[in-house]
Amino acid sequence: MSIFKNSNVPSEVRIKQITTMMEMQDAMNSKVNPDWKNAGNDWCRAIWIECAEMADHYGWKWWKKQTPDTAQVHMELVDIFHFGLSKLILDRESAGNIFVRLVDFKSTSYSFLERVEHFVANVLDGKVFPVRQFAGLMSGVDMTFDDLYRQYVGKNVLNFFRQDHGYKTGEYRKHFSDGREDNEHLVEILNELPADSPTFKDDVYAALATRYEA
């Protein structure tokens, strides 16, 4: 099953969305360390550790009753994509090539956990971020590209918003004027705004600012 369920969106828009995420990832990494590209961070290790956490949320223990927490699995996939994009940027991958590989995903008979294991094996053996297999993970839990883009941009924008409003110095108010946490506001904002807008990330930031200052 393709992760691009909305076939009406032109490929140029999808490539622009991937470009936006790559630019946002570079900006966030640079905020942590301006010289991040030469820091030697082990992005592949970060990916497989996140995969282990994702497997816990999905459920793999045969000795107890477990129900997949799909929302948490989606969040882990977003975190994995943060690290994957960092690796792709270092490998000088283009947004167009990433898009093609996301589209090229072919469905398999593997279970979700088997897909996770094959994905991790390729990450560690090849020291790469296997984009097609990542699309397979998304497909295995009914996560669309729109879901990925919306949640990725939202989390990245919220992290920047927190930093810009004194998160590191302790001045930031995580609970807004109505008493609800910023994450709750973010979910509402992401559901209200069109993810295919070219100003999506700026619109999310502006909406957070409006609610924060209310």
A few lines on this structure:
It is built from nine helices and no strands. The chain is mainly α and 214 residues long.
CATH architecture descriptor text of the largest domain: Orthogonal Bundle
The CATH superfamily of the largest domain is known as Type II deoxyuridine triphosphatase
The main pleated sheet reads as: none
Q: What does the radius of gyration come to?
A: 18 Å
What would you say this structure looks like, in words?
With 214 residues, the protein is mainly α. The chain has two domains: 11-143, Type II deoxyuridine triphosphatase (all-alpha NTP pyrophosphatase fold, Orthogonal Bundle); 149-213. Helix content is 64%, strand content 0%. The protein has nine helices and no strands. Helix 4 crosses helix 6 (131-140). The radius of gyration is 18 Å and the shape is globular. It starts with 10 loop residues before the first helix and ends with a helix.
Characteristics:
all-alpha NTP pyrophosphatase fold, single chain, mainly alpha, 2 domains
Please render the helix and strand layout as text.
Layout: H1 11-32, H2 43-58, H3 70-90, H4 95-103, H5 112-126, H6 131-140, H7 145-164, H8 182-192, H9 200-213
Helix pairs in contact: 1-3, 1-4, 1-7, 2-3, 2-5, 3-6, 3-7, 4-6, 5-6, 7-8, 7-9, 8-9
